Automatic annotation (TrEMBL):
GO cellular component: membrane; periplasmic space
Compartments reported by the entry: Periplasm
Molecular function (Gene Ontology), one example: copper ion binding
The protein's name in its UniProt record: Sec-dependent nitrous-oxide reductase
Membrane-spanning ranges: none
Taxonomic classification: Archaea, Nitrososphaerota, Candidatus Caldarchaeales, Candidatus Caldarchaeaceae, Candidatus Caldarchaeum
Length: 686
């Protein structure tokens, strides 16, 4: 967009590029001509360009890809992609089509550049709160990002991400790209249903992955609940959950008091999606291990992967969340560990939970733009299975079931709810959609992305539910990501394949631990074309969400004197009192220090405290200039804050080591940045 918008009248840049490309395609690269193609007359490239192409040994498709992805400085990318950072615990912000990383947002792991987890009180509190009853965690495994929605469309205000390893969920403001809240899901050990919002972000929903030991009526408490692991106990006393966490946009906080949870059988629930349009009020999750295997290779049992892959069908979970909300209002849920829980029994009795067969050990659960179809990747079947939400609703209304699972959950008939099955490729995982009624599925085993047509109303052509194109991927593609997919209005244009292996794609290799590979694919034409290979040297990304850049409107600077954690006035700063105040709080000595930072002075630059004091710094950056960030690092104290223009940051640490320690600004901010320093004197205790 950026490139085209700036075109001059007359010979547009686009026309120039088009004729240039035509020249390459028809006339061939320098020294290599396809002489049979004579008409039309071919414009030739300037000799210096031809020389570059020749010297760098490029092919015409490389030149085309370069022209389609290059974004000059100061010009905008078309899309922003928010990618999970996998077990780095963070989120990456990437521009598309340039494929440049703009930022890594600290979420579940301390990150010094953002002053996240190194003394900055609000970030320490987040990590502390996120550990809620567990040991102090500095590790997360982020999988599925989600963007806040208004009328089911992404509105670019909030970003949510789940931590699979510890069943936590984070909310990130896209006003300042900072994490504002993290919660641990009650009664849940691990999660995988990602973070999916209801159409107006009333709730962020999330299913568990591995069931947790669960005491009847008392649920699961980390580090407390113990139930001996046996096959019988697993069936009887382990449970999964689906949690609808209320999100308070104004406060930027999750609100557990107004959230609810549904107890579900101990299958391994997998991906989840919340619907809109015809599927509004419903959420869908797939599952694996309906065999209820627990492994035990050294106890004479088959390994989990074998035992959990016996059945030809697992269960698509179909949940009426609006009915669940009503049932909670009617007082039929019981509070367990801080959240209202609808028991499995109640969920069945009240018509909240249903199953439909899905083949086989599936993965991926996505909804087409119309909201009409739910699409599941077969994983161990070469099929994409497409369910019709209208048929699901009708079958439920008519009470047409084939039977029940061992827990009494009614199972719909596959033939009653299926819209189509499409044979796509081997190991189909995740589906995404474009604006023209096509689905795209990642095939992990056959290393390809396969494009297919949907049915009406998404696709109204005469060849519904058919494969229309395929492209090889390098290699082992997990998720794919198209622009604003899993919403009513995808934008088409690009698809990014989030590949697990890169093998030989990046030369020279960087050791046995190789980067993952994001492949940017042009989906505008009839044939998909690879434009770019992007190494990801930071964790293993799973899913990503991509939205138009103009939907995100971040702040440039904080208004001076506000507290960015809440965007409230910071009352103590307004007093404008600089210096050290030593006082007692609950019998402990606290040295409070009111500080400002501005190019190139830290005031005060000498801070004297006594050994054992809790030092609390209120540091206000009084800059109003964009990008004039100052850092604050204290030598040998593991303290580091990042104070953005206008921001007041509170930093706390215990002055347990006596001595004189330098502190300085860690961002090279001005010619006198090296002089932007001072001293912390910690007077030894007698
Ligand atoms: S999962 Cu990773 S490739 Cu967590 Cu969405 Cu499928
Ligand atoms: Cu402020 Cu360097």
């Amino acid at each position: 967009m950026g490139v085209e918008r700036k075109e001059k009248k007359g010979v547009s840049r686009r026309t120039f590029l088009a004729s240039t490309l035509a020249g390459i395609a028809v006339g061939g690269v320098a020294g290599f001509s396809v002489s049979k193609l004579v008409s039309p007359p071919t414009p030739t490239l300037p000799p210096d360009i031809q020389n570059i192409i020749k010297e760098r040994n490029l092919q015409p498709q490389h030149v085309e890809a370069a022209l389609k992805t290059y974004v000059p400085g100061a010009q905008p990318d078309e899309f922003l992609m928010f990618s999970s950072g996998g077990h780095s615990g963070q989120v990456m912000v990437i521009g598309v089509p340039s494929m440049r990383i703009y930022k890594v947002i600290a979420v579940f792991t301390p990150e010094p550049w953002q002053g996240y987890g190194y003394g900055d009180v609000k970030t320490m509190e987040l990590l502390q709160k996120a550990s809620n009853g567990m040991r102090f965690l500095t590790l997360g495994d982020t999988h599925h990002p989600e963007i806040s929605r208004t009328n089911a469309e992404y509105d670019g205000e909030w970003l949510f991400i789940g931590d699979k390893l510890n069943a936590r969920k984070a909310a990130i403001s896209l006003k300042d790209f900072e994490t504002k809240d993290i919660i641990k899901l009650p009664n849940t050990q691990t999660q995988h249903g990602g973070a999916c919002t209801t159409p107006n972000t009333e709730y962020v929903a999330c299913g568990s992955q591995f069931p947790a030991p669960w005491e009847p009526g008392r649920g699961y408490k980390p580090g407390k609940t113990y139930i001996k692991l046996t096959e019988d106990n697993f069936r009887e006393y382990f449970r999964g959950t689906v949690t609808f966490t209320r999100f308070d946009r104004a406060r930027g906080k999750f609100d557990l008091a107004n959230s609810f949870q549904i107890e579900i059988p101990p299958y391994m629930q997998d991906l989840e999606i919340v619907g809109w349009g015809p599927s509004d009020g419903w959420t869908f999750l797939n599952s694996i291990n309906t065999e209820l295997a627990i492994g035990g290779v050294l106890e004479g049992k088959p390994p989990l992967e074998i035992a959990a892959s016996q059945k030809d069908f697992d269960y698509l979970h179909i949940i009426n969340w609006k009915k669940a909300e009503q049932v909670v209002r009617q007082g039929k849920a019981k509070e367990i560990n801080g959240i209202k829980v609808i028991s499995l029994e109640t969920a069945i009795k009240e018509g909240i939970l249903f199953f439909a067969p899905e083949p086989k050990s599936p993965h991926g659960c996505d909804i087409t733009p119309s909201g009409r179809y739910v699409v599941i990747g077969g994983k161990l079947e070469p099929l994409v299975t497409i369910y019709d939400v209208e048929k699901i609703k009708r079958a439920i209304a008519d009470q047409r079931f084939q039977g029940e699972d061992p827990y009494g959950v009614p199972i719909l008939r596959f033939e009653d709810v299926k819209a189509a099955q499409i044979e796509v490729g081997l190991g189909p995982l995740h589906d995404e959609f474009d604006n023209l009624g096509h689905g795209y599925v990642s095939c992990f085993i056959s290393n390809e992305v396969v494009k297919y047509s949907l049915g009406p109303p998404d696709y109204t052509g005469d060849k519904p539910f058919q494969v229309v194109d395929r492209i090889p991927i390098h290699y082992n593609v997990g998720h794919i990501c198209t622009t604003e997919s899993n919403s009513p209005s995808p934008k088409g244009r690009y698809l990014v394949a989030l590949n697990k292996w890169s093998v030989d794609r990046f030369q020279p290799p960087t050791g046995p631990l190789l980067p993952q590979n994001f492949q940017l694919i042009d989906i505008t034409g009839e044939k998909m074309r690879i434009l770019y290979d992007m190494p990801i040297g930071l964790g293993e990304p799973h899913y990503a969400k991509m939205i138009s850049v103009n939907k995100v409107k971040p702040l440039e600077v904080y208004p001076v004197g506000t507290d960015p954690a809440t965007f409230q006035k910071h009352p103590k700063y307004i007093e404008g009192k600089l210096g050290v105040e030593r006082k007692q709080e609950n019998g402990k000595w606290v040295s409070e220090v009111w500080m400002t930072v501005v190019r190139s002075t830290i005031t005060p630059d000498i801070v004297r405290v006594k050994q054992g004091d809790l030092v609390r710094l209120y540091i206000t950056n009084i800059e109003t200039t964009k990008d004039a960030t100052h850092g604050f690092g204290v030598a040998e104290y593991n303290v580091q804050a990042s104070i953005e223009p206008g921001e007041t940051t509170t930093v706390e640490f215990v002055a347990d080591h006596p001595g004189v320690f330098c502190f300085y600004c860690v961002e090279f901010c001005s010619p006198l940045h090296l002089e932007m320093a001072g001293w912390l004197e910690v007077e030894p205790a007698e």
